[in-house]
Every structure is written in structure tokens, then in C-alpha cells.
Amino acid sequence: MKKLVDTKLSVLDLAPVAQGMSIADSFKHTLDLAQHAEKWGYERFWMAEHHNLDGIASAATAVLLGYVAGGTKTIRVGSGGIMLPNHAPLVIAEQFGTLETLYPGRIDLGLGRAPGTDGLTMRALRREMTGREAEFSDLVQELQYYFAEVQPGQKVRAIPGAGLKVPLWLLGSSLYSAQLAAVLGLPYAFAGHFAPELMMRAIDLYRVGFQPSDVLKEPKVMVGVQVVAADTDEKAERLATSLYMRFLGIIRNERVNLQPPVENMDAVWNPMEKEIVLSKLRTSVIGGPEKVKAGLQKLIDETQADELMIVSDAFDHNDRLRSFELISQVRGAK
Hints:
Number of helices: 11
Structural class: alpha/beta
Strand order of the largest sheet: 1-2-3-4-5-6-7-9
């Protein structure tokens, strides 16, 4: 059985914009968090592509990844993920080929098939939905083609990108990406931090169906998890109200900047909303050091994950730093 001390921990950042702060502040906080995460021994620092969403500033994901990679030295930097159907695979190969050339051996490319936005914004991105899931498979394989060694007579190349073999991960919150990752022999990351309903089924499908590839001989599973850690259980519960309000805003279709904590969530949500939010966050780990350690170990026991991708969005940047610091401390050293 896997133990927390032996499990890699990584960071997922959406460049959150807190109420009263600017997007420029958010970017500074993102880099500061990455630099601290590097010092605390985190494996990766990933950022996710979202568009037209108040409170999330990571739309130009590749640009921000360059900013983070340039301000750090050893931590792996990547996307969690790039929403590939929004883009021509050649453009992504060129962007991440550029990043890999600038920061060799440190770049990851996690890929998702959701739009990361609403329908109107999808059209603004010039994205056409046909409903054919197979299209995502085609896009992934086209991207692999551009990263491979150039073939004789190849007319279209990624320059830079060709031959760099940037590590690809498939991300998902449903069963499709798990099955595709298995067939292609790629590592798989499940979005347990916001869609835990199918988590175990997706992981099982991936492991059972996994076919070894040139890049991976055995299944490799990462699980996303929401964590709010603080010095006491009581403080963590209070800080977590900002997280609850973010998810409540999604349910109400009221996207706003990250809100300050409140003393009583029952004054904010109704019983049905509370049930929905807590269901979406049922894998979350909230508490002081001992509670966080036990919660992370429980998730590892359930999933046998090789790596946990931590999301921890406290309203105050210092509380967020403290959360990631405590998580690294409870993991301990090998």
C-alpha cells in the first residue's frame, strides 16, 4: 500500500483573483507560490486554461507558464490543462516546444477536452462543437506527431517542438479520457478536486485498459484534491468558506472574484445548495495538520494514486502559502 511520505505532491494554480486585488497581484502571487512550492519540495506547478471567468486569470496559460518557469529553477512547470479542442495542435506544439527549449527537462503538457468556458466564449474562441468525442483522440495524436522526430518528406513541422517529446498527460473528469489515456499509454490525471463522482470508476478503467507505450510502461495516476490546511481545524474550516462560496457561485452561475471567509455559511447558502457543494467537494481535505495528514492518506488508500495535485485557494495569499507549507510538512521526508 502506498504511503503519503512516498507520494509525490504537486500544485494546481488558476491564478485566483481575490476580491479587492488586481490581476497583476494575482500573477505576482502565482510566482511567489511557485517559488515557495519549489523550496518545499513539490514536484510540479501546473496551471489550467479557463476563459471569461471572473476570479480566474490563467487564460493565457502558456504565457504564464513561461513567467513561472523563468522565476523558478527546478520545479516542473506545466498545464493542468490546456483545453486542446480550443487550439490547433500545431500551435500548442510550438508553444510548449518553445517552453521546453527555454527550460529543458522541466515542462509538462496536460491536456483536457472541455472548453474551460461557456458556449458564447467557445464561439469567440472559434471553436465548433460537433459532439464527436473521437475528435479529441485525433487532436492528441496529431500533437504527438508534431513532437515526434521529423519524418522524411514531412511538410508541416513544429519549430521548435519537433523531436522534443514534451511529456503529455491526459486530464479528465469522466470516463472517456481515462479510456483514451489507457489506449495511448499516457499518464492520467483525474479531476477529483471538482468532480469526484466518477473518480474510482475512471481510475479503474484506466488501469485495467492500460496498454504500455514508448513513453510509459505501467499506469501512472494523478488525482486532484482540494485542500485547506491551517494551524488549527477551526481556522481551516473558516478559510474553507471562501472555497464553498466559489463552488456556490458556480451553482448559481454567479462567477465572482474569490470572496473573503465568512463566519456562518448557513447564512449564505440554502440546504439544497449546501448539499450540492459538499457533494462536489466530498474528497476535499480541510483541517489542521493531523486532520490533513489523515485525509490525504485516506485518499491515497482509496485511489492508490502515484501523485496528488493539490488545489488550495485561500482568500489571503499568506494563508494560501501556509496551507501549502503545512501540506508539505505533514507529508514529511522520505
